[in-house]
Amino acid sequence: MKAIQKKSTCQVSDRAYRIILTNCINVMTEKGVSADIFAAVIMAVKEYLETGQLAHRMIQRVRNIFDLFRADIDLAIRRAASARKAAMTRRKKSEPETVSAEILSPKKQKPAKRFYSFPVLGALESGETPKPPRRSKGIRCPGLQNRNNGLE
Description:
Layout: H1 14-31, H2 35-51, H3 60-104
């Protein structure tokens, strides 16, 4: 069964995304950046990681802080793009081999493993047919039918 691959909205891996955001938060916390600038930088970084470009024009202070992290972000985007390309070529290489191998030689089926480690009484061996039921040898407890269990 093939694994379902989730499409990421981000251009970098989840791990790189978390590292970049954590680094941004740590640096801005150490520098004592005001709350509105802090939020603007975080939004700009998220937007850049998801789309690869900035849609709106930032104020100078936000741009200066964002430029501190831009080199790391660009490197992570390039690294993720090359990793995706390499994964795609590996998938394409492995796909035709598995399809052709299945068509040319069907898999031999192995007998199923026994559920119990000990032999089960009455279990059929391979190729054996079930036997008809045994005939009854008579009444199990003779004389029990004639008794009324002390009711008379």
